[in-house]
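Format notes (please read before filing issues)

Several people have asked whether sequences and structure tokens are stored in separate files. They are not. Every record keeps both together, in the order shown below: the sequence lines, then the token lines. Line labels are part of the format and must not be stripped during preprocessing.
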Amino acid sequence: MTATVPGWAEALATHAPPAMDPAVGRLVVVAAHPDDETLAAAGFLRAVHAAGGTVELVVATDGEAAFPDAPPADRAALGRTRRAELHAALEALGVGDTRVTWLGLPDSGLADREDELTGALAPLLRSADACLAPWTGDPHPDHAAAGRAAERAAPVRTHRFAYPIWMWPWMRPDDPAIPWATACEHRLDEPARRAKAAAVERFTSQLAPAPGGGPPILPPDVLTHFATGRELFFRVPRPDSAPAERFADLYAGGTDPWETRTSWYEERKRTIVAACLPHRHYAHAAEPGCGLGGLTRVLAGRCDAVTASDYTPAAVAATRDATGGFPGVTVLEAALPDPRAVPDGVDLVVLSEVLYYLSPADVDAVTDRLAHALVPGGDVVLAHWRGWPAEAPQDAAATHRRLLGDPRFDLLVEHVDEEFLLHVLRRS
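Then the structure lines:
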């Protein structure tokens, strides 16, 4: 039977976080102490393992300072015990083959060793598809430090997620620090719930009374928060725009990293973008982030002139080759919010799979540029995949909302399907 926690249950129902996808490939989980990963994410780790993914665990400390008044010898013994408990918990969970890297940093001292922790995590995260680490807002300094270090160490291509621990018993659901807007969850089925309970029970040092008869580290009222059958995570978006170097790497060697020339998704999206253009013909269109030029060719057939641009020389060269038969096409190397990407006097701007790679501040700068460069009555098309690229500071919905709420633009077309989000706005 699933436990319930008043307040938090209502908050989860109100915010309705979307489901986490366990098909993440190589997942590296960072924990400040042995048991953090089990309490917060045991069900998700089990699901990733069952989906064929690789789960690796990095534990920053041995948790030897759980009882701060204990003498040094007892602390060392507790550290050894907690290591053994963690391996037993992984066996109980059914993921006993998980690779565990023990960093052996001092418990209750991670904030003072954050740079060292970041350096240790960097090589371990180098090829990770996803990283799961403590939430930086968690009210435990070791958890916050481990979360910050993981964020700094994770490569730009790695999806970053955070998990809370002491948020549950020590904070309120309406605390403004909780990032509900980026929350997602994993729901445990009955076998997974039982396996998680068995794994938690392996941490006997944390469940038993403290030396001298004090309360346990994890009393029943705290454990209740981790027995609900739901695990909460927060996506950790990049704070800055995706670096141009990342796209240069993707296009290296003449590759088509998003299969824009062959995928049905791209072909279908181009067709729908063209069908949603309100006018048959435009004088001058701008297409920042033109990629390999597939959509540029479509626009060239509907416009007297097209100014296409991209971050990388490889993409610019490919678009020039793809549009060589269209005399009105100019292709520039420019990255938004560079004003050259949206020249003055355009009557159409198409932003496809590019705007969500920009920070909110840069999206606002682009919005101002659109309002300045578009002629009155000019149109702007926003089209973005509804997933969330690892390099992106925000997803399609959040990106589009920034323009939809701007009074300088009127909404003409909205297209929402399971794969992408499309809006056509008109300059007032």
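For reference, the curators noted about this record: The chain is about 35% helix and 25% strand. The chain has a mean pLDDT of 96.
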